[in-house]
Amino acid sequence: MNSQTSNRWLIVLGTIIVQMGLGSIYTWSLFNQPLVDHFGWQLNSVAITFSITSFALAFSTLFAGKLQDHWGIRRLIVTAGIVLGAGLIISSQVSALWMLYIMAGIVVGFADGSAYITSLSNLIKWFPEKKGLISGISVGAYGTGSLLFKYINGALIQNVGVSHTFLYWGIIVMILVIGGSFLVREAQVTSQSQSVKGAQANDYTVKEMLKTKEAYLLFIMFFTACMSGLYLIGIVKDIGVSLAGLDVTTAANAVALVAIFNTIGRIILGALSDRVGRLKVVAGALLMTAIAVSVLSFVKLNYGLFFACVAGIAFCFGGNITIFPAIVADFFGLKNQSKNYGIVYQGFGIGALSGSFIAAALGGFASTFTFIAVLSIISVIIALFIKAPGQRAALKKEKRNEKTQAA
Q: What region, left, alpha or beta, does residue 133 occupy, with left being phi > 0 and alpha being psi -120 to 50 degrees?
């Protein structure tokens, strides 16, 4: 193994450590009831905190690329680690909901999203020949962090109380993110991006990307994929009780199932996309999602069917959010990957908020799942026909040449 290859894999290790620390925010559901018990707040009011975190995370990705240009990747990750850790540490001292919303919501979310998208995009630039696999490793580490910290934070809440847990959580995350950053180095993109099926892809700026119809079609697909997965994650236990007739304890097992299959999907579908084509994998995952949510809507559920559908949706959601960074790189080049993916990534933030509003408007789980099925089928059709802008231009040129030759 030459030194360049060795260095690349050290950067992978550093990014994994960073992403595991960042993924810890997905243990928020552990904090809801303890905060209610400790402060006497309303459960719904406390739960809003994570919606704020998710939105701030997605919103921060619009600015992270510009910050990286000014500071460099390592300084950005270190700063994000300090701010993220400080936000959690200060959350241990809050005494009012608005303080929790600002520190654990806005501050933590913004710092988390800034480091998430830049470290992911940087790693993809180091491995242009394995975008799907590398994206899977990075995003999979983020999911693994949520699994690991489920046990760390759960144990801390039991032993030291919810307020002190924020303190220790902040310190651990700060150490992980800052420590991992020392293994991360900035990738240099000196030439044009890889070709996509023989057509050379240009390095699009955000302004250039937004002039293409493909940017908006990818956003629709990503929004659909995110809304289906995030809506399920938020209410999976309640679905088990109300639609499948399971007891609360059995239905709660679905939470762990979602986390496990979400992580597995990230690794498997990410690697598969390098071999068979990303859009084919996304189309297959969205079709599986459409079938699974249709079953949840229209079929009488039992234990096995319920868990099969939940596992399928989680697997596909994990795979889709892994593949999309690589698709954006394929379509619009590697040079401005952080900024370009930051635009498409807004589908995550809007998807996180939309599921609950759509469910409220449609009046229940079953009708919401039917709506998701329709959106998924539309996105499958888009995935089957969409082409990278460079590839589309090459095909038009080829057709013009054929017509000229025929004439």
A: alpha
Residue type, position 230, single letter: L
**pTM of the model as a whole:** 0.83
Q: Is 277 left (phi over 0), alpha (psi -120 to 50) or beta?
A: left
**8 A C-beta contact, residue 341 and residue 325:** yes
| Cα separations in angstroms, 108 against 35, 119, 120, 265 | 17, 17, 18, 26
Angstrom distance (rounded) from CA 320 to CA 344: 13
Segments in 72-161 forming alpha helices (H): 73-91, 97-100, 108-126, 131-160
Contact status, residue 318 vs residue 143, Cβ threshold 8 Å: yes
- 213: CB partners within 8 A, 6+ apart: none
Token pair 């960042």: residue: 22
Q: How far is the CA of 193 from the CAs of 67, 73, 202, in angstroms?
A: 22, 20, 7
Bridge partner residues of 200 (DSSP): 195
Give the count of alpha carbons within 13 A of 93, CB side only.
5
Q: Which two tokens stand for residue 350?
A: 């809007």
Could you report the per-residue pLDDT of 299-334, keeping only the tens digit for each?
888 888 988 999 999 999 999 999 999 999 999 999
